[in-house]
Structure formats: structure tokens, C-alpha cells
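Sequence in, structure out.
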Amino acid sequence: MRKTSVDMNRIIGSMDLIWICLDTLRYDIAVQEEAAGTTPVLNRYGRWQKCQAPGNFTYPSHHAMFAGFLPCGYEVKNQADRELLFYPTAIGLRRKVPDGAYAFAGSTVMEGLARDGYDTWCVGGVSFFDKRSDIGKVFPGYFQKSYWNPSFACPVKESTKHQVDFILDQLHAAPLEKKIFLYLNVDAIHYPNYFYVEGEKHDSLLTHAAALRYADGQLGRLLDAWGQIRGNAFVICFSDHGTCYGEDGCQFHGIHHPMVDTVPYKHFFLEKQYADS
């Protein structure tokens, strides 16, 4: 296994961790908006990396990611060449932990982090986090604290705003001495997204991009406030899979197609911010 680009053993225990999943975001649309400068929040934290998706829809992709298998580099052709920031010691890959990887015990990254003192939070979005159904309880059950309500759901135009508002309320009440691992599932880009462009009646590449621009603005509120309230954090931002809008006759996801299997990824450090800066 390759050496990691960041030393996770210096991060774990010293700062908060944030995973932001922009559910369904296509790589081509992410870099399109990056180049146009229309996602200023995400742009300030570096360029998108082209990656292979862990799965072709939310359920398989998240099972892989929660076990430590985040999107890997697009050019990776061998398991040993992928970067594993989170290394599951019980999976039987190899006995030697990659240099810089966080080796965790248990069935998920969250279980390992909880054992190492983190408070693990999940703020869901898509229906696989809707705790009103049995299948919607699976992913939330991996966390010590999990939250979902109908205002976070895909058909709600202001879903990301509602999620961020909720997280900020929770942050003000959270003890500073306890490190937090936050997983946020942003579902604004998932279908339906037509309502992000006035007058549109159907989802398209145009509305997909508009949904990303909307989410970007809301993430700015979250990251700025986190830096002010909590201080330093290590952030991983990615998509779990892409989607199709008619390419080769394909529609949406849950199928293998280059537009589904190729996703954007980046990680970065969020530094302490001050309200009067």
C-alpha cells in the first residue's frame, strides 16, 4: 500500500474530522464549475481530484467508504496503489499498515474513531438515511448520534440550508474538549434538482450544476462557522457516485457508466478562524 499524502496519525485525536458527501455529483460538472469560478467556497480549498467511485449508487458506495475505502485515484489499477487514509486492520488486505494511515479496529471508521474518543455524528440526506424505514436505519446506526428529518430530504429545495442550520445549532452546544467526526450527506444534487433553475421541469446537466452552486454557498456557512466555533479540522469532500442524463441512453445511476463511476474528491485542512478577522 502506498504512503498517504497526509499523516492521519497526527490528525486523529488532535482535531475534528468532517466528511462531506456531495451525493451524486459528477466529476465533469464539478470541474466545470470550478473552472468557471462559480463554486468559490470549494475552490478556495484546492482543485478537484478525478477519482473512481466506490460504488454505482449510494448504498454500496457508503458501505465501502464507511469501511475506509473512499474514492481512489482515477489512474489506480492495483489495490496496492490506492491511498488508504483509513486502514481497516481486520479486512485482511496486508499485515503492514501503510505509512501515515489511521489503522482502525471495528467494522467501520466511525467505530474505530469512537474507540479513540471521537463523538461520531451523521446528518443524513438521501433516503438511505431516512430512519423511518428499516433500510434507512442501517447507516445512521453506525454513528453515536444520527439526525434526519423531512426538511433534509431530496425533494426539499432548501435541504442543505436546513442541514447546515441544524449542524450549527448542535455545534454551539457541543463541548470543545470532545473531538467530533461529522458525516454530512448533501442531497441537493441528487434528483430531483430541476427546481434550482427557474422554469425548468426536468433534471438535466444544467440543473445539476445549479444544485452544486447552491450547495457550495451553504457549505461556506458551515465551514466558516466550524472554524470559528471549533477551530482546526481535517475535511474530506467527495461524491459517492455520479449520474447520467441520457448519455448512451442511460439515465441516472445504479448502473455502470463512466459518468456514474467517475467522481470528484479533495481533502484539506480547515484552520481556526476568528469572528473579527
